Amino acid sequence: MEQIRIGVIGCGNISDIYLTNLQKLESLVVVAVSDLNHDKAIEKAEKYEIPHVLSVDELLENEAIDLVLNLTIPAAHAEVSLRALEAGKHVYSEKPLAITLADGEKVLAKAKEKNLLVGVAPDTFLGGGLQTCRELIKNGAIGEPVAATAFMMGHGPESWHPDPEFFYRAGAGPMFDMGPYYLTALIHLIGPIRRLTGSARITSSERTITSEPKYGQKIKVETPTHVAGILDFENGAIGTMITSFDVWGSKTPFLEIYGTNGSLSVPDPNTFGGPVLLRKPGEMDWTEVAFTHGSLENSRGIGVIDMVDALCSGREPRASGELAYHVLEVMHGIHDSSVKGEHYKMNSTCKQPEALPSEILS
Ligand SMILES: NC(=O)c1ccc[n+]([C@@H]2O[C@H](COP(=O)([O-])OP(=O)(O)OC[C@H]3O[C@@H](n4cnc5c(N)ncnc54)[C@H](O)[C@@H]3O)[C@@H](O)[C@H]2O)c1
């Protein structure tokens, strides 16, 4: 099989783990990097021994590149993905797919028109923790899923991210930034969503950066920082979800699924590992379950590897554009419902991504 040649656009914070995990694979090779800030691209090329540092235009015009890995900021995702598709390249993008639904639709339509694939992060649901949960549900360990809770309770990224402004712009906030992990995990475990309702608020109009190098600088808040939603899944299960940048401390679980015959404590969906805990009727405590799958460490990029395999075998990637669009519509729907004071009925749906083969069991 020929190697798929990847060009990376966006060499910021998250690019390191991708470039680390995408090294030394037989199926793909990172041949070029690019960033609006050329120095950042040079730094990553040197660190990961990538042969070419190109401008964005040069990278897109380069016919030797098959797939663009779009690691830019959310506001640039749709534009960069559309340009890459227009140039005839497959795209794998960091989340979210786009900021607006209209832009998300354009990306999917362009991929269809050009007969190219779109993959979108997160890919944490391909890790051993969430795949073990999927296996348990598939095997009836908790019976039929009845309900779920999902909580991302924190106090925002301005204490650790070096450039945290974008988290408070329209199209970001806790739901658009962290919601994709929780929603993708829920859809992977339960299925697509048909209807929802939401409530959202902006708690402070201004936040203060406490990370370096921008310590003390102020950020104007343009998007809700506490967002709550109720999710009605197509199969009848009911989800309760909160994402917040306004909470100093909380004992809420990351994610739990409640079934007719037991409860499942799902690991942090922003990670690849465990623990996975199960509690059956009548039991007083949770029992830790052995993993059925590997990839428990930080495996960011496993979605790109799956997409390369999908390209070579003619199937859809698991972390697909269709799934990411459904997640994007849920996140917008929660905000819209809050503004309008009414339920939001979903227009899109998606296939539950195929479970990975359980290589540990087999
Ligand atoms: N930082 C994290 O821990 C983390 C984790 C998971 C996902 N993500 C996602 O990864 C993406 C990038 O996040 P980050 O933390 O690396 O941000 P970052 O600000 O550190 O890096 C983004 C890089 O993209 C470049 N860029 C922006 N627009 C561009 C354009 N049009 N063309 C070329 N380059 C452009 C910037 O110059 C910057 O170097 C975001 O979508 C974020 O949601 C980040």
From TrEMBL:
Keywords: Oxidoreductase
MF term (GO), any: oxidoreductase activity
Keyword Oxidoreductase: yes
Domain Gfo/Idh/MocA-like oxidoreductase N-terminal: 4-120
Listed Pfam families: GFO_IDH_MocA, GFO_IDH_MocA_C3
Source organism superkingdom: Bacteria
Annotated source species: Guptibacillus hwajinpoensis
Name this protein carries in UniProt: Gfo/Idh/MocA family oxidoreductase
Alphabetical list of InterPro entries matching this protein: Gfo/Idh/MocA-like_OxRdtase_N, Gfo/Idh/MocA_oxidrdct_glycsds, GFO_IDH_MocA-like_dom, NAD(P)-bd_dom_sf
Regions annotated as coiled coil: none
UniProt domain GFO/IDH/MocA-like oxidoreductase: residue ranges: 131-264
